[in-house]
Write a structure and sequence with these properties.
With 506 residues, this protein is mainly alpha-helical. Helix content is 75%, strand content 0%.
């Protein structure tokens, strides 16, 4: 009986092992080690989610080509006539229906449709992925994303000027995009124990900014050949990476028949949605918590609402920064869509620094709320300075953009990684993995709703004044910090008590 069982297990492993892994092992005539599998997981998932963000960034780059005739009239650095002539010469005449008087509103509606479907899809993707092979699920999501991103670009050659065509395509793209985050986090969690996850996830989380930067550069480069290329090329690229995922991504050690390292044995295989917070504990027990009950878990509500406003600010920059740059004269000169797209990547460079810095500071201080709140409050004067003085010269614009990226993306990255992990280990959960999925849906879903609202509000408000847009962003950053006030006070009190204890002992 034992031999029959072993044969069955070997057959199951062979059937779930990725084809690329099989080929490599067949070529080298030996099995790939556990460490090598971990390296493959990190590289493939990093490329996968970076490609998701690269395709997500493309629409922000082509906005100035679709609607070039909406200059920023609130900064009187050059005359209105010069602004209009300069925009026509640099950006072209646009693309109907987006080049009309309500062009920015229509572009904002596209962002809302995409992000709303994305937010809703996040609540369901985890549960669907739990019932599928994650390698297959992620491949379907990436190929589907590539297909609909390319279909948006095909409107350029097909001469499509119907708004609802682009609206439906964006909604479908948002649905497939929602498969990315829960899938890659779950796979990484399957391969790395809790003792190593903090450092690894901190570095790995740079995929968001790397994807934004690469997407901006690629889309901006191909914009000179026609905006359709700026959509089709990234769409084809994510489809290719999706094939790489299908060929090489091992979902977990059991699927490829390798033994975990000793330090990783405390992290058994976990479901997809549970990974978005923390690994399960050894006590896999408890019944599902209700939606309202999950909101009452300490820390969930304040960080969920903080993420709502933090992502509102971050995604407004993600979707509108290149457009804003191309429509605002810097030192009296307008930038082309390509140059504006390239310049906007500095926001994400600052975001990489901010994410790493926020994580490092919060680790050293053991104070997540203090760190997140401090970054959000610092973002307020940074936003004001960028709006007021960013147009003076290129060096000033670059420096302020880096600073904004650091303070805006810092708390966003912190909450979606380290903070979520902390909440997953809260004593009130008592190892209940069925509560973790609900908590995850609340935090990520709430943040994604904010991400959907910010860009569409910008589409409407910017038609009146970009200064009003920045006022909205500063107000959102302030509210994000306010939601953490109670947690900040608790952390400060704890630090003060610890300090008094140390002093009294000495």
């Amino acid at each position: 009986m034992g031999s029959i069982s072993e044969t069955t297990n070997e057959s199951t492993t062979r059937s779930t092992k990725p084809p690329g892994i099989k080929y490599v092992e067949c070529t080298k005539k030996s099995n790939i080690s556990f460490k090598s599998h971990q390296a493959i997981v990190l590289i493939v998932t990093f490329l996968a989610y970076a490609s998701y963000h690269a395709t997500r960034k493309t629409t922000s780059i082509i906005k100035s080509a679709l609607d070039p005739q909406s200059p920023d009239e609130t900064l009187q650095s050059v005359s209105f006539l010069r602004r209009s002539n300069a925009l026509s010469w640099v950006l072209g005449n646009g693309w109907a229906p987006f080049n009309g008087s309500n062009g920015t509103v229509l572009l904002g509606d596209l962002d809302l449709a995409f992000l709303f479907i994305y937010a809703v899809g996040m609540f369901f993707s985890g549960h669907i992925g739990d019932r599928m092979n994650l390698r297959i699920f992620l491949t379907i999501g990436m190929v589907g994303t590539g297909l609909f991103t390319s279909l948006f670009g095909l409107g350029y050659w097909a001469n499509i000027h119907m708004f609802y065509y682009y609206l439906v395509v964006q909604m479908a793209a948002g649905l497939f995009q929602s498969t990315g985050w829960p899938s890659v986090v779950a796979v990484v969690g399957n391969w790395f124990g809790k003792s190593k996850r903090g450092l690894i996830m901190g570095i790995w989380n740079a995929h968001t900014s790397v994807g934004n930067i690469s997407g901006s550069l690629i889309a901006a480069y191909f914009l000179k050949y026609g905006w359709g290329w700026s959509m089709v090329v990234p769409g084809l690229m994510i489809a290719v990476v999706g094939v790489v995922v299908f060929m090489f991504l091992p979902v977990d050690p059991e699927s490829v028949g390798v033994d975990r390292d000793e330090e990783d044995t405390e992290s058994p295989k976990k479901g997809l949605t549970e990974h978005l917070l923390t690994p399960k504990t050894d006590t896999e027990k408890g019944s599902p918590v209700g939606f309202l009950e999950a909101w009452r878990i300490p820390g969930v509500a304040p960080f969920a609402f903080c993420l709502f406003f933090a992502k509102l600010v971050a995604y407004t920059f993600l979707y509108w920064l290149p457009f804003y740059i191309s429509h605002t004269a810097i030192n009296g000169q307008y930038l082309s869509s390509t140059a504006a797209g390239n310049l906007s990547t500095l926001f994400d460079v600052g975001g990489v620094v901010g994410g790493i810095l926020a994580g490092h500071i919060s680790d050293r201080l053991n104070a997540r709320a203090i760190t997140a709140a401090s970054f959000t409050y610092c973002a307020i004067p940074a936003l004001y300075l960028y709006r007021s003085y960013g147009h003076i010269s290129m060096p000033v614009n670059i420096i302020l953009m880096l600073v904004i990226g650091m303070f805006v993306n810092g708390p966003y990255a912190l909450i979606t990684t380290a903070v979520s992990a902390d909440l997953g280990t809260h004593k009130s959960l008592k190892g209940n993995s069925k509560a973790l999925a609900t908590v995850t849906a609340i935090i990520d879903g709430t943040g994604s709703i904010g991400a959907a609202i910010g860009p569409v509000l910008t589409g409407y408000i910017s038609t009146q004044s970009w200064s009003a847009v920045f006022t909205m962003l500063m107000g959102s950053a302030f509210v994000a910090g306010l939601f953490l006030t109670k947690l900040v006070v608790a952390e400060v009190t704890e630090k003060y008590q610890d300090l008094r204890s140390v002093i009294s002992c000495n």
